[in-house]
Amino acid sequence: MPAPDRLPEEWVTVARLGRTRGLKGEIYGDSGIEAERLARMEQVWLRSPEGVWMRDREPLEIGRVRAYKDRLIFQFVGVDSIEAAEALERCEVLIPKAERQPLDAGEYYFADLVGCEVFDRASGRKLGVVTGWQQYGGPDVLEVQVEGAPPETVAMVPFARSICVEIDPAGRRIVVDPPEGLLELNG
User: Fold this and answer.
1) Residue where a domain terminates, one of 76, 99, 122
2) How many alpha carbons lie under 13 Å from residue 15 in its C-beta half-sphere?
């Protein structure tokens, strides 16, 4: 069975691609995983923002990944022109969950945080559920669907140790100690 036919929960997003860079098929990307660890992955699959599997459901081989400022630059084997790279813009880079490399203590795959309930440390009140994340070049940000609010109400919670004080993906729980006004600013 081809890998993309696996169930959705068997996949994990390890990076998100951005725009092309240069004329030789390089493309910017963002990931919570360092370049060296991504470069050791033998093959990856790409899925468009619309959920369409790219390159006829065939895996791509990573030729090179390198850090550049606060981002990454990907080069895939066989993608050697700007036109070929443009077709991959904004795609998710996925691997089967079983193929993930172990992380060091205190490191997390963002995909494992999606679905975690978020609680306020001071009050113990449930604030919401992590629905996604963003990487803007600064601290990574968790998207939290606010408890009891309309679906479009999403709080952006910086994924920083000073704010996310307890992180338990196995228990599906994150405890936050937000600075005063953060949740009001977001909500």
Assistant:
1) 99
2) 28
Are the beta carbons of 89 and 17 closer than 8 angstroms?
yes
pLDDT tens for each residue of 3-17: 555 555 688 888 889
Would you give the DSSP letter of residue 186?
H
Q: For residue range 130-164, what is the model confidence (pLDDT) as tens digits?
A: 998 887 666 788 999 988 888 778 888 999 889 99
3-state secondary structure 101-163: CCCCCCCCCHHHHCCCEEEECCCCCEEEEEEEEECCCCCCEEEEEECCCCCCCEEEEECCCCC
Q: Are residues 27 and 84 in the same domain?
A: yes
Predicted TM-score (pTM) of this structure: 0.65
Residue 122 structural domain: 110-186
Tell me which amino acid residue 130 is: V
Do residues 94 and 125 share a domain?
Answer: no
User: Partners of 61 in the beta sheet?
Assistant: none
What's 123's domain CATH number? 2.30.30.240
Report residue 87's pLDDT band, with 50, 70 and 90 as the boundaries.
very high
Looking at residue 136, what is its pLDDT? 67
Looking at the fold, whether 51 and 118 belong to one and the same domain comes out as no
Whether 105 maps to a domain, the answer reads no
